[in-house]
Amino acid sequence: MTGCVTCLTRACDGKEGKRLVSILEVSDLAVEFNTIEGVVHAVNGVSFSLDSRETLGIVGESGSGKSVSMMSLLRLIPEPPGRIRSGSAWFDSSKGRVDLLSLSKTKRAAVRGRDIGFVFQDPMSSLNPLMTVGEQIAESMRLHLELGDREARTRTVELLDRVGIPAAAERYGNYPHQFSGGMRQRVMIAIAIACGPKLLIADEPTTALDVTVQAQILDLVKSLRDELGLAVIWISHDLGVVAGLADRVIVMYGGLVAECASVDELYEQPRHPYTEGLLEALPRVDQDRGEELRSIEGTPPDLYTAPGACPFAPRCSYTFDRCRREVPPRYVVNNGHDTACFYDLAERRPRSE
Amino acid sequence: MQRYLLSRAVQSVLLLLGVIVLVFFLVRLTGDPARLMAPREASAQDIAELRALMGYDRPLPVQFADFFSGAIRGDFGNSVHYRAPAMALVVTRLPATVELALSALLFAVLVGVPLGVIGGSNPGSIWDSLARGVGLIGQTVPNFWIALIFILVFSVNLGWLPSFGRGHWNSIVLPAVSLGLFPLGQIVRLMRSAVLEIRGEDYIRTAYSKGINDRRIYVAHVFRNAAIPLVSMLGVQFGYLLGGSIYIETIFAWPGLGRMIAESVAARDFPLVQAVAVFTSLVVVAMNLLTDVAYALIDPRIRYDK
Q: A113 to chain B, minimum CA–CA distance in Å?
């Protein structure tokens, strides 16, 4: 992977001269899946860093590799058929700085749930139907924090209360099917934060919920983040949700990082044609009625071949021959903003080198 | 929970009453019982006398009322062949069949559950191939054939195990293994596919994301969920085995219900056939009811249903 990976270096020269400590540095992560039809190149060299207490939004359409790359960090993808082809992910765990991708099974289990909490997309299927919700929260605390049964129970009830489950003490012994979708996602969040992690990875946690519940869950995560000083990676395909939550956003396409910028800059000055297309496709309140919603022509790439070109080239209106020959490196736009595109959107011409 | 169990109990009782009715009329459908019971050379006069003696000359509703009122009290009349109360005869055969059924099921569970779980949790491994092989063989090889092979190998050639009877402690080995082979195949296949499926469930990924180790994942999360289909299958299988195996009990001269069915049908001992039929239905229904109870105990989603 060539190019200037500013998202990696940004941690050292952050805003206002304040040195921020990066708690996670992922470089050149590549993940593939062996399927009957061939090898699916799901993630093709993703690099980014995350500062402590920072919220990073990761957006992209289905199949862009956003969930797979984040789950790969904790090796939560099924292996086989999945395989981490390359990359490193240095993380500040409670037991020192470790490369998540090369940890032994036991050490990895010690990081999961303890230092990194995970919230998944579908709360209906993410909880064990035969175990009480209280038990599912207490389970990891007994394991990581070595709490006794009574302590774990007391702390679980506190957690249930904190994530907004009414009558928490009585709900401890309830089973998942007795909870609504929103309530189950609150339980999932309680599980994720139970052992006091540094990092919360949320994989489209509001996608399966209705809009009002989405807003409640979003507010809950925000308040927990501020209260507990969490760093958050929020995976979403909803640019609106990410805008209201993230400090910085990574846009993924075809298993690659297309653009990375602070949230304000990304929405105001997108420098990747894909980001631009996504933002133009958003319906706006001030749009004329009767005006048709814009969309990006074409379909996402099938990823059966390893990328040898810009994955967005077939759908891009700025494509020229270089885009079909090379994978674009991540060009620096300014400090903290980079774009993987051979075309300079600001200058409206191909980049010269 | 109580309502669920009560409704299942009521259903079971209704089912049994239905079976009693069915048994009565199905036996009548096979023709005139007196003619079927009488020896071939009997005259029309003899048959008429026999018919009157057995009470089969009365109008059908009267016969039915008589049979039904006796049946619900457990009285199925006297066995023609043994000249003793039919139900009492059935009950004397029960211990042998229970012993055989339990041994067969125990063998199937002890071998099948671990093999299925290991196979399902290591897909593509040698254990998985073994599990799939055992599953296939267990379900496709007829048990009367394997029983004969076992006798040939272990009794005749090697002389390790007795080939018939129920006297010695080791005389149960061959019949139990032969009889257990089919449920073994089913259990292996069921456990393998259940574990394989549950491994990929979202809640297992959640458990891994909490840092739970493999052993606890399998014991607390995978196995408990796989136990739901297992319990319902064991209930059905055990009920089926308790009905007695005609082939296995006949081949090994095992004095159980299965052999009694074969004998009573051959002897056209109608009261005994009726008693065995109703009794095996009772056992199957009772096992299904117990299965439902166990099912409700394992799965909270059923426990709280209206």
A: 4
Among B206, B214, B225, most A C-beta atoms within 10 A, so best to mutate, is B206
Domain span at residue B283 reads 90-303
Residue A205 lies in domain: 1-115+199-282+299-353
Of B211, B301, B304, the CB nearest to A140: B211
A97 and A174 share a domain? no
Which residue does chain B place closest to A196, by CA atoms?
Answer: B210
Q: Are A28 and A87 in contact (CB under 8 A)?
A: yes
ipTM of the complex, rounded to two decimals: 0.83
Indicate if A183 and A274 belong to the same structural domain: no
DSSP string, B33-80: HHHHHS-TT--HHHHHHHHHHHTTTS-HHHHHHHHHHHHTTT---B-T
Contact between B178 and B143 under an 8 Å Cβ cutoff? The reply is yes
- Structure-block tokens of residue B236: 């059905």
Give the C-alpha separation, A206 to A193, whole Å: 17
Same domain, A259 and A345: yes
Instruction: Assess whether A3 and A34 both reside in one domain.
Output: yes
**Could you tell me if B36 and B104 lie in one domain?**
no
* Domain-embedded: residue B85: no
Got the DSSP string for B243-306? Answer: T--HHHHHHTT--SHHHHHHHHHHTT-HHHHHHHHHHHHHHHHHHHHHHHHHHHHH-HHHHT--
CB within 8 Å: B211 and A144: yes
Query: Domain for residue B80, yes or no?
Result: no
Partner residue facing A120 (CB), from B206, B224, B298: B206
pLDDT in tens, B167-182: 777 777 888 888 888 9
The distance of A44 to chain B (nearest Cα, Å) reads 23
Which of A196, A230, A251 lies at the terminal end of a domain, its last residue? A196
Token couple for B10 = 């009521």
Q: Do A131 and B221 touch (CB under 8 A)?
A: yes
pLDDT average per 10 residues of sequence, chain A (353 residues): 42 42 86 86 88 89 86 86 86 84 86 88 86 88 85 88 84 87 88 88 84 85 88 88 88 89 88 86 74 76 80 85 86 85 82 73
Pair (B97, B190) in one structural domain? yes
The per-residue pLDDT for B240 is 80
How many domains does chain A divide into? Answer: 2
Distance from the Cα of B246 to chain A's closest Cα (Å) equals 40
Write the residue in A111, A125, A140 that is nearest to B202 by C-beta: A125
Tell me if chain A has a CB within 8 Å of the CB of B304.
yes
**Which of A95, A127, A128 to mutate against chain B (most B CBs within 10 Å)?**
A128
Q: In the structure encoding, which two tokens stand for residue B40, read together?
A: 């071939």
Cα–Cα distance for residue pair B256/B98, rounded to 1 Å: 8
Report pLDDT for B194.
92
Chain A residues touching B213 at Cβ < 8 A: 106, 109
Cross-chain residue pair B209–A113, CB shorter than 8 Å? yes
DSSP state of A189: H
Domain boundary among B13, B44, B71: B71
Residue ranges of chain B with pLDDT lower than 70?
Answer: 1, 244, 303-306
Name which of A75, A76, A130 to mutate to probe chain B: the one with the most chain B Cβ atoms within 10 A of its Cβ: A130
Q: Residue B12 falls within a domain, yes or no?
A: yes
Same domain, A111 and A154: no
- Please give the structure tokens belonging to residue B140: 């496709």
Phi, psi for A85 (deg, rounded to 5): -80, -40
Q: Would residue B32 count as lying in a domain?
A: yes
